[in-house]
């Protein structure tokens, strides 16, 4: 456990190549009292959009002690309709207040006339959607004044209209907007199984130079209408063995990368979360060691 | 189909279970699959229902999880969050409950839900200091009746013909004690600092506070309270409400 007195007075300006955890209200007290040795914390931006109160007070304290990743779940970057300016200004307010080391959002949409649909919905990959997403990422980065990391989605359906491969789609967005990518390894597994793709091939093609953060999570499993295996991105259990193996495969290409354990439903006690972080961090350290040995050998 | 039309089609199919799947979706085997599309429908409904259960835990305990989930699903069917700021979701759930026929027997349910909605609003409300009594003491006595007080941003009143504060309080511990009396209650929900407090206050103090929160000057608010209860104690009510953190200060412009 890191002694508070020896903690560097200044936090780094980017997330460290370590494991991080989602900061949950039930753990505010524990984190501030015990100051566990965690690489960084991540919060959902939308949970900190109230005017005041305990969430901001706790987050202010935590952000003084740990690097912070701000993760948006409601910007609806993949929507046909324009981005919500009010929501963009709320995000900017948060970024200015907490100066997070990273800001990320999803390649998905969630807005409709009847209101916010509260899920990360899929979009077809076409020239039209590509142009739309590029405009939205440009606008978002300009509005919040910070580079954005765009996360690959987990999906349950495909679109007949899609003409562009998902990785080409993400790579083109990054190339045209300068945004980074958030590689969600669990999403890769979920989408690969759901669409009969090879997750390792996906990983081998992913533009590693763009990756600013990795997400890991636990999936649920069911079957679809034809009895085929269907994985659900559930965030309510430990990281499964096949996802951990895929993560190791990814790390061999990316090298050490800030890695978040996502556990948002049925949140366990802090020790259980910390054990998950330790599992991920051991793999980061192993990869760092492997690279050091290679460098020395050369 | 363009992107806007296809997302409209997708959203309509999500929101209405009786509608066919959206056009243009498929699977690796080349056939759309209803079970797969149902994952999205389920995510939307379960997500919203869970958000309501988190915000209204006592309401859920009072009717049981199965009844609550059914009621919440019906609400969510026609009431989506107005924005991605999901912490606001359910502000009008108490009004929905008040008009929800199957819950009509539990006349107090909507008021308990109102208390819980006020609790989360107080939790996320703007932070503010409290009225400085010495500022009030410095006001000339003849100027006092015209003085208006600013409500604390977190403060809210629930006036109910049912013992809502007692019901809510009884459900804060693992074992719910039996209710000893069944009287009307006025509840002040307020967060002077880090903790949201729920206070049962005298009815006349509630009338006084409600008038003040509505922008009435002290004199007019006191008259309203007197009209309800001739034994209303102006000084005690003002000092008492202040002590609970109900006021943030004196209205700008009213300071002599």
Automatic annotation (TrEMBL), chain A:
Gene3D superfamilies: Divalent-metal-dependent TIM barrel enzymes (3.20.20.150)
InterPro entries documented for this protein: MbnB/TglH/ChrH, Xyl_isomerase-like_sf
The organism's place on the tree of life at top rank: Bacteria
PANTHER family referenced in this protein's UniProt entry, alphabetically: UPF0276 PROTEIN HI_1600 (PTHR42194:SF1)
HAMAP family: UPF0276
Family the entry assigns: Belongs to the UPF0276 family.
Protein name: UPF0276 protein FHS55_004437
């Amino acid at each position: 456990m890191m002694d508070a007195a020896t903690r560097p007075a200044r936090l780094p300006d980017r997330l460290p190549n370590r494991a991080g955890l989602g900061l949950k209200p039930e753990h505010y007290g524990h984190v501030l009292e015990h100051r566990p040795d965690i690489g960084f914390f991540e919060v959902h931006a939308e949970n900190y959009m109230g005017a005041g109160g305990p969430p901001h007070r706790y987050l202010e304290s935590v952000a003084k002690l740990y690097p912070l990743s701000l993760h948006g779940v409601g910007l609806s970057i993949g929507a046909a309709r324009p981005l919500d300016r009010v929501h963009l200004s709320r995000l900017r307010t948060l970024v200015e207040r907490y100066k997070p080391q990273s800001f990320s959002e999803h390649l998905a949409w969630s807005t409709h006339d009847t209101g916010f649909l509260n899920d990360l919905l899929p979009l077809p990959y076409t020239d039209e959607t590509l142009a739309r997403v590029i405009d939205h990422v440009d606008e978002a980065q300009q509005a919040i004044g910070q580079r954005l990391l765009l996360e690959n989605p987990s999906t349950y359906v495909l679109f007949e209209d899609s003409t562009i491969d998902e990785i080409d789609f993400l790579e083109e967005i990054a190339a045209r907007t300068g945004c980074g990518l958030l590689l969600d390894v669990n999403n890769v597994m979920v989408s690969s199984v759901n669409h009969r793709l090879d997750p390792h091939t996906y990983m081998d093609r992913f533009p590693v130079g763009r990756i600013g953060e990795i997400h890991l999570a636990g999936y649920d499993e069911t079957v679809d209408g034809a009895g085929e295996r269907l994985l659900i991105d559930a965030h309510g259990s430990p990281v499964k063995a096949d996802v951990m193996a895929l993560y190791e495969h990814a790390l061999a290409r990316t090298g050490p990368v800030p890695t978040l354990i996502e556990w948002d439903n049925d949140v366990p006690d802090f020790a259980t979360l910390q054990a998950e972080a330790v599992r991920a961090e051991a793999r980061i350290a192993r990869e760092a060691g492997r690279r050091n040995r290679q460098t020395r050998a050369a | 189909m363009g992107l806007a039309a296809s997302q409209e089609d997708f959203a309509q199919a999500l929101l209405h279970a009786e509608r066919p799947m959206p056009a243009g979706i498929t699977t690796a085997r080349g056939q759309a699959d209803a079970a797969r599309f149902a994952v999205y429908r389920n995510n939307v409904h379960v997500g919203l229902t869970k958000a309501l259960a988190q915000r209204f835990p006592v309401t859920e305990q009072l009717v049981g999880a199965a009844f609550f989930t059914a009621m919440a699903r019906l609400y969510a069917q026609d009431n989506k969050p107005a924005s991605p700021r999901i912490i606001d979701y359910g502000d009008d759930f108490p009004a929905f409950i008040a008009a929800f026929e199957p819950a009509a027997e539990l006349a107090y349910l909507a008021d308990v839900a109102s208390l819980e909605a006020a609790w989360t609003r107080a939790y996320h409300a703007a932070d503010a200091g409290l009225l400085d009594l010495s500022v009030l003491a410095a006001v000339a006595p003849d100027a006092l009746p015209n003085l208006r007080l600013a409500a604390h941003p977190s403060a809210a009143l629930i006036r109910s013909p049912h013992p809502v504060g007692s019901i809510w309080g009884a459900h804060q511990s693992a074992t719910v004690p039996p209710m000893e009396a069944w009287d009307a209650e006025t509840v002040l929900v307020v967060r002077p600092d880090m903790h949201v407090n729920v206070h049962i206050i005298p009815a006349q103090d509630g009338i006084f506070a409600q008038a003040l929160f509505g922008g009435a000057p002290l004199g007019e608010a006191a008259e309203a309270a007197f009209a309800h209860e001739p034994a209303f104690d102006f000084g005690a009510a003002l000092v008492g409400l202040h002590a609970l953190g109900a006021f943030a200060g004196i209205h700008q412009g009213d300071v002599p």
